[in-house]
Design brief:
The protein is of the alpha/beta class. The chain contains 17 helices and 15 strands. InterPro entries: CdaR-like_regulators, Homeodomain-like_sf, PucR_C-HTH_dom, PucR_C-HTH_sf, PucR_dom.
Length: about 475
């Protein structure tokens, strides 16, 4: 660690004459000079050594210039030009809060220079060793099985702070877990390169843009020093490479999973055998399906957490084949997602039912909804299966697929035209026109609660029996 004025004074037997409140300042370097205005040759942080050769009655302005230049303190050699430190200099230094140390004649300036130089060299060596070890640890974490999550955890330990990996502003990795709470105070949407911010909590945060949507955030109460900044830069580089590699691999694997899901839905026997050959941990079919909807970054985090499961990204949703409710529900809750769960049945039917339940879960603002609960299986079980199917067919047969979907979505949104139109991706006037067509083709008035209930039962029966 760099040498402070207090440590130097104690080690070399220097008497503190003024500015004792600033003795914990660290000394960046030593600069002997007899110039009245040496500021052009200073960088700040120096201990300025002088015998006062040119000093007379200009103590106030002299001290003011040194304070403005950011010097750490003055070491005044007494017994050379001045038998003792001029009282005017002591008064000016005390007034400015600038530490003033008396260097007795028997203590040569070179001894102070050597002491500070040795401390600076030791500090630089310690920085090199620390950054080298940090670089090695981060590299091992990056190439290990833990991937970006391991790098984030290791970085938090190395800088003794908290670390977030944000995808489009949403935290996907955090160390410690409580660091997720800091995400709300970070504005990263327009970030390019690196930026430092200070949170209301007082934490100093450094933001690194890793790509168009991913940001690394590192924070702690005190600013990062040079070694910490080097370690963070190393982590940012490794994470950028790891994310690029993961996305390339994920793209290929995603295409494979998507193709296998299509095969499963079109040829269930062949698809199931192929999937189980590649994912032997899956139970024997028939499988339960889960469909997850919500923000894209959160869906990606969900898929990462379910890496050992058969997950398929499909447009605005994520499909999980062979879903375990005990895994899906807590993960969806933590990430702010909504999931629908099917019973274990034929794959095409389970896929459709899970999707319907997922949209209903989002409408009800719950993390998980089972299709059997959503479809009101208790009521449907009271109806003779054949009669219920005939009823649903007679009521819905005049309607085209887009009218059925519009009706279903409108009922799921409790008759809210704006919400249903948004989900369907159509204008609300288009939705109203479709609902009028439903009324015209079926001869039923949707303003009647009883009619809406009949349509809901018909849609639930149709959803349970199609496949």
């Amino acid at each position: 660690m760099a040498l402070s004025l207090r440590q130097l004074a104690e080690a070399e037997g220097l008497r503190v004459l003024a500015g004792s409140a600033g003795l914990d300042r660290t000394i960046g370097w030593v600069h002997p000079t007899e110039l009245l205005d040496p500021t052009a040759f200073l960088d700040g942080g120096e201990l300025l050594l002088t015998t006062g050769l040119a000093l007379d009655a200009v103590f106030g302005s002299y001290v003011d210039r040194l304070v403005a230049a950011g010097v750490a303190g003055i070491g005044f050699g007494s017994g050379v030009i001045h038998p003792r430190v001029p009282p005017g200099l002591v008064a000016a230094a005390e007034s400015a809060g600038l530490p003033l140390l008396e260097v007795p004649r028997e203590t040569p300036f070179i001894a102070i220079t050597k002491a500070v130089s040795a401390a600076v060299a030791a500090d630089e060596y310690a920085t090199v060793v620390r950054t080298g070890r940090g670089q090695q640890e981060l590299t091992r974490a990056a190439v290990g099985r833990g991937g970006p999550a391991a790098v984030v955890r290791r970085l938090a330990r190395l800088v003794d702070g908290w670390v977030l990996l944000l995808d489009s502003g949403t935290p996907v990795e955090a160390a410690p877990a409580a660091a997720r709470a800091h995400a709300a105070g970070l504005e990263v949407s327009e970030l390019r390169g690196t930026r430092g911010v200070r949170l209301p909590s007082g934490d100093e945060v450094v933001l690194h843009s890793l790509d168009a949507r991913t940001v690394l955030a590192v924070g702690r109460p005190e600013p990062l020093d040079a070694a910490d900044q080097f370690i963070v830069n190393t982590a940012a580089s490794l994470l950028s490479l790891a994310l690029q590699r993961n996305r390339e691999q994920s793209g290929v694997l995603g295409q494979l999973r998507s193709g296998l899901l299509d095969l499963l839905l079109s040829n269930e026997d062949l698809g199931a055998r192929t999937i189980r050959g590649l994912w032997p941990s899956l139970p024997a079919p028939p499988w339960r399906f889960a469909v997850v909807v919500g923000a894209a970054p959160a869906r990606r985090a969900f898929a990462d957490a379910m890496a050992d499961s058969f997950c398929v990204a499909r447009e605005s949703m994520l499909v999980v084949v062979g879903a375990d409710p005990s895994q899906v529900e807590p993960l969806a809750r933590r990430l702010g997602l909504h999931a629908g769960l099917s019973p274990a049945t034929a794959a095409p039917v389970a896929y459709r039912q899970a999707g319907q339940a997922a949209h209903a879960a989002r409408a009800r603002r719950v993390p998980l909804l089972d299709f059997e609960e959503y479809a009101g299986s208790g009521l449907l079980s009271l109806l003779p299966e054949e009669s219920a199917a005939l009823f649903a067919e007679s009521l819905l047969s005049p309607l085209s697929a887009d009218l059925v979907e519009a009706l279903r979505c409108w009922l799921e949104e409790h008759g809210n035209n704006d919400a249903a139109a948004t989900r369907l991706g159509i204008h609300r006037h288009t939705l109203r026109n479709r609902l009028r067509k439903v009324e015209a083709l079926t001869g039923r008035n949707l303003s009647s609660p009883g009619v809406r209930a009949e349509f809901w039962v018909a849609l639930s029966v149709a959803g349970a029996h199609r496949g």
